[in-house]
Write a structure and sequence with these properties.
The structure is a homotetramer of 338-residue chains. Chain A is of the alpha/beta class. Helix content of chain A is 30%, strand content 28%. Chain A has nine helices and 15 strands.
Amino acid sequence: MKVVFIGSGLQTRRRAPVVVQSPDDELVEIVGSEEAPPKGFIEQYGCAWGSDWRAAVTRADVDAVAVCTPPHLHAEMSIAALEAGKHVLCEKPLCRTLEEAEAMLAAARKAKRVLKCGFNHRHHPAVLEARRRFEQGDFGRPIAGRCRYGICGRPGYENEWRADPARAAGGQFAEQGVHAIDLFRWFLGDLAEVSCMTSIGYFHKQTLDDNGMALFRSADGALASLHSSLTHWKNLFSFEIMGEDGYFSIEGLGASYGTERLSVGKRDFSAPFQDHVIEYRGGDSSWQSEWREFKAAIAENREPLGGGADGLEAVRATLAAYNAEATGSVVQIRNFKP
Amino acid sequence: MKVVFIGSGLQTRRRAPVVVQSPDDELVEIVGSEEAPPKGFIEQYGCAWGSDWRAAVTRADVDAVAVCTPPHLHAEMSIAALEAGKHVLCEKPLCRTLEEAEAMLAAARKAKRVLKCGFNHRHHPAVLEARRRFEQGDFGRPIAGRCRYGICGRPGYENEWRADPARAAGGQFAEQGVHAIDLFRWFLGDLAEVSCMTSIGYFHKQTLDDNGMALFRSADGALASLHSSLTHWKNLFSFEIMGEDGYFSIEGLGASYGTERLSVGKRDFSAPFQDHVIEYRGGDSSWQSEWREFKAAIAENREPLGGGADGLEAVRATLAAYNAEATGSVVQIRNFKP
Amino acid sequence: MKVVFIGSGLQTRRRAPVVVQSPDDELVEIVGSEEAPPKGFIEQYGCAWGSDWRAAVTRADVDAVAVCTPPHLHAEMSIAALEAGKHVLCEKPLCRTLEEAEAMLAAARKAKRVLKCGFNHRHHPAVLEARRRFEQGDFGRPIAGRCRYGICGRPGYENEWRADPARAAGGQFAEQGVHAIDLFRWFLGDLAEVSCMTSIGYFHKQTLDDNGMALFRSADGALASLHSSLTHWKNLFSFEIMGEDGYFSIEGLGASYGTERLSVGKRDFSAPFQDHVIEYRGGDSSWQSEWREFKAAIAENREPLGGGADGLEAVRATLAAYNAEATGSVVQIRNFKP
Amino acid sequence: MKVVFIGSGLQTRRRAPVVVQSPDDELVEIVGSEEAPPKGFIEQYGCAWGSDWRAAVTRADVDAVAVCTPPHLHAEMSIAALEAGKHVLCEKPLCRTLEEAEAMLAAARKAKRVLKCGFNHRHHPAVLEARRRFEQGDFGRPIAGRCRYGICGRPGYENEWRADPARAAGGQFAEQGVHAIDLFRWFLGDLAEVSCMTSIGYFHKQTLDDNGMALFRSADGALASLHSSLTHWKNLFSFEIMGEDGYFSIEGLGASYGTERLSVGKRDFSAPFQDHVIEYRGGDSSWQSEWREFKAAIAENREPLGGGADGLEAVRATLAAYNAEATGSVVQIRNFKP
């Protein structure tokens, strides 16, 4: 496939090398908002630099577009690319409103193209292995889930697009928390209701939450709690599911989150506590794995893992959570329309 | 001091040896609901067995009473003991209603006696050390707290008093969660609002929640999340506070929760992640430490750590949480009256 | 069984409660070197105090004797007890010389009584479970073993019997290391050769080694390394065996060594690293387990796990190690006679 | 600097990117033993491919040579490069004999060029931080050290140059163990004596040891134990030093060894056990750090950390260890000449 990237930030730096190293793909152009690329930036990818994204996504030779811009641009860019007949991998959160999400899905349906949301967490090896064991029934019906997802913010955070309500899809609750919401949906099924509290605990020079907590109840009655934090002075990713028959917990995502580790155990009222622990040492392989899934979905003409519909539902749950806080109530997610 | 225990269950087995080994205390009587004590039970404590708790708490030679019965009996027994001029250490939760709690506090005030609630978690060495560092400002203003408190339930759980709504103070959310609520109050100050979701995930033969999750917001704006679970197939106690300048986390309580461990760290945007880790190996010393505090409060004629008023506020927050779930809303705790 | 203990130190305090709580055993007498017992000491065991060990071990009503004195007394006391027809559980190291050891074994054979050496480490649950898996072939032929066994010494250590060459069986290398030697023998089989280096690293006011390291080669060609240290400022017990097909490692012994934990894994050249981890939380159960084995061996008229012959071989390996250091050579253990 | 690499194996793949990314260095040529480079190999470095190492190391425009070939070629290549006036970074072990090592050092002295041995372990951030604390006296005089260094071998290992006595510098004991020997020398000072045992535990189709254990005594009386293993089915790097006043331990090296972690603690006879733990998450930075040191030594015209003399002494200790095993004795290292 010939691939165009829109955006020249962190996510492009993470995702573009995967395409470069993929034997049957070619990264043909990166589009940035600057007139010229940062020094040395383009050389490492061996591709062209563009500053006109509309021109890039309508290139006749291009098969797929990776949208790695801030959220306020996701819908417009993705829809243009889909309408031009390109497959789209769009960063998470899919977009900022349900209207945008629905328009994106409609465009994908109409164009018969794959729209994937950049939920790379589904593609972490510990998550994939947990899912495999989940599907074979190792944990039984899920009872509860927890996600603690925290990162140490940075001086000058208030100047980033992430701190700009005009560009971001929400505060830290939405920004990182949407991964957890997507994973909860994957393991617990439809999320039925939510309550939420957010705060600005440290980064007072901007207006978006730097901490958000939510409780969810799934349609099947499982509970889930989420804390997404930008004031977690030691980075942490911890995702846990307990079911009737067993449980798993995942800690780490590689890199600054430490070694990725899956622990699984069984309900056993008589034996000493025991876990089977799998370590995924080395770098973060989720970007490669996600790209393979994107390509497989295209080849097989099917919905990818973490596709557009999942992106839409995660946006819905996120907006419902913010609404729950605003209204001081538990909000029903399933038919939530802001 | 001469001490009477009411109750012959697990908590008496934990607390009575502390009194027996205390050089200037004497355990004079254990009162049980059975006519005769279990074989060998009384011998190890070298004390009398009684079956009339009213007689025991009014013994002229007795200084203090430990109330280790199910919650529905706490108020009546504690008030009788206080009215007889005895100091009272009453198991947590202090009682089942705010009316009961207020009557207990009034009795203590009137009798000028110490009423302590059995919040032994405040007396765990990791918690005490965290508190010491908290007071000296190591963590700065608190931003968020989390408690994950889970235990593996038992076959036959539905036949225990803990599963009986007529005797227990609530489900697992109240039973274990009240410790976390008390700790949140200690570190975050007054809790202002709460939302809550509970469920029966596994122990379906009874009607009380076996899982409960809550979110709290403190009067100072800190957030806190709690999950208390009876379906945590591997026992876990984890309590974390993050502040503007640093954080701590506590894991383990000794015994079936594993080695108690305090980790503390600082906010530092440039250094590698680092923690100072203190391990409290060996047995659970909280029972001794709590007893010493009870005695010190008596000797100094002051409120103990985790006294009656703390017990009342923890009951209030617990009831507010249940009310939040019942009403599908965020409940204001501070003036909550059911 | 009616049981006599000789010695009133730490090991009696650990072992005597096991006998007291054993439903079909009775602790009838503790013999100390003092005229009268320490205040309160005897009361907790509900037994008599004696100061004549010869009289005690020949009491007609006594079935078994636990020898919990310093090593220089082990042989004389054990032999007297065996000759009086008593079963003997003698603390480790079994004794100080091979001559003593052989005399003890001869006395047991002649009297047809059980002589067990106090190798309680074989009875730790993680060790027993590792052995069970070892016997069923989970690890394959052993290739190498390691033991790191360290404890933080104490001020005033130089005044203890352990620091007195006239009473101890050697320095820290012998004192704690003999447990490792016994475990190596259990898992690796006969130890064929040894080299050794010891030192006085910190406790200079006495003359026995406070650190000792040794390398062993088993008769089957496996290697093993041991470090026994009194200057391990953080207590550690770590015992590891790797075999052709898998490995196990044990960390912790409960109490001041932290939660006892067994990790097992398989050789797998293609999968991510993974361990099955079993935690034995709570107190140290080895004393109970060892006592049950002592009684079972008596009942079944057989050699116990960690019997007199094992005690002798561990003494032989220990003496061979000291000899290796003294001679600057690798010493053949199997027929070593000092 | 303009830099030539000799060798096209794993170490070049690790070290060459560092030079490519170094702003003031240029990788001009990689010399391999193959006629043509592996497909795609040279493109990523943007340099020339050569097959004549003698021509390459005498290029007039070249400043430094990295020798990343099997050990049997180190001396010849390094000496040729030094004689041509190039600075040399030579992989560990420096070479295979003391004669070779002395010739290499002589060549460096004569040419007044820097000769560095590729002891990248000194440049791991945990090691550097431990050394910093060591130098400021945090641990006091060293008492003992331990290194456990193990890796899971590979099917087909017997076909690698590492399994070929004509090319390797020894078995696994030498190959990985030499890093530990160098670190022991750095922290404990001169190593005075050694005993050693090696074995072939699993890789029987070749003749070099796959496991080696050694004991060392430093000139100052500290002890050290080393186990280097190719049958460590779960990769492990653990390096520990305990001193009179404190200790440190390092686990992990990043990548397949897991997150690199430094734990430090103090001798304290009364406090609970506590460690300060620093985690170096993310990739292995030692290659960058080592390269900076190489360049700094050149710029400052001084011996680098882990220079040629250190390489020579590590070879001496390794050969002494093998000699100790061969002679069944403790060997004096300091003046050891095979």
